[in-house]
From TrEMBL:
It comes from Escherichia coli. GO terms for biological process: cellular response to oxygen levels. CDD domains: IbrB_like. This is Transcriptional regulator. InterPro entries: ParB/Sulfiredoxin_sf (IPR036086), ParB_N (IPR003115). Residues 53-149 form the ParB-like N-terminal domain.
Length: 212
């Protein structure tokens, strides 16, 4: 067992690798590669926070369904926190083919692009990718709503629009309630707010709305 690699030997090899002069982007990509490898063998591989990656800010794209609204005072406090404490929470994203779609952390990624923070982060943002099985429009929407509701922040009108969209995507009231943490009365009320009678009757939908 004399040839076995110990954590100390591995640490020294990593330090030696990064002590060599190389472009910054190459070093960041190497760090991401190592984090992915560690994530693969981690006992916490099912937890997205176990693998925080640095990606280019321009590759992080906001979603178009987030009902979370932040007041100007909250934005100011978040900006101050990012400046004083740094990024303590990654932006939660879905890893797509050509970009990373924001699931949670819209305001963090937005402020991360501002001049001062962008300069400090060298144009990169920390992200945690949701588990692959949670991909797909409906699952992403549900994940975003769960994050927002866990903080007690969401807009009723936007929530009703999302319930409408999930219903059109083929989700039952029971599934909507389970995934979004609502009882059936709340689901029904949000459907009523949307004012769409189609949600209460049988209707054929385009294949484009079908969840696969």
């Amino acid at each position: 067992m004399g040839d076995s690699v110990t954590p100390e030997i591995l640490s020294n090899m990593i330090r030696q690798y990064f002590s060599q002069e190389r472009p910054e982007e190459e070093a960041i990509q190497a760090l991401n590669h190592l984090r992915r490898v560690l994530h693969e063998v981690s006992p916490f591989a099912q937890e997205p926070v176990d693998c925080v990656l640095w990606v280019k800010a321009d590759e992080v794209v906001a979603n178009d369904y987030n009902p979370n609204v932040m007041s100007s005072s909250e934005k100011k406090l978040l900006k101050h926190s990012l400046e004083q404490d740094g990024f303590t929470q990654p932006v939660v994203v879905s890893e797509e083919k050509e970009h990373y779609l924001v699931v949670d952390g819209f305001h963090r990624q937005l402020l991360g692009r501002k001049a001062d923070t962008r300069k400090r982060l060298k144009g990169w943002l920390p992200v945690a990718c949701i588990n692959p099985e949670r991909k797909g429009q409906a699952s992403r929407i549900a994940a975003t709503i769960r994050h927002n509701r866990a903080r007690g922040k969401h807009q009723i009108t936007s929530m009703s629009d999302i319930v409408r969209d999930l219903s059109r995507l083929g989700w039952t009231d029971e599934r909507i309630g389970t995934e979004l943490g609502m009882d059936q009365d709340e689901v029904l009320r949000l459907k009523q707010i949307s004012g769409l009678t189609e949600l209460f009757q049988e209707e054929d939908f385009s294949p484009a709305w079908t969840v696969r």
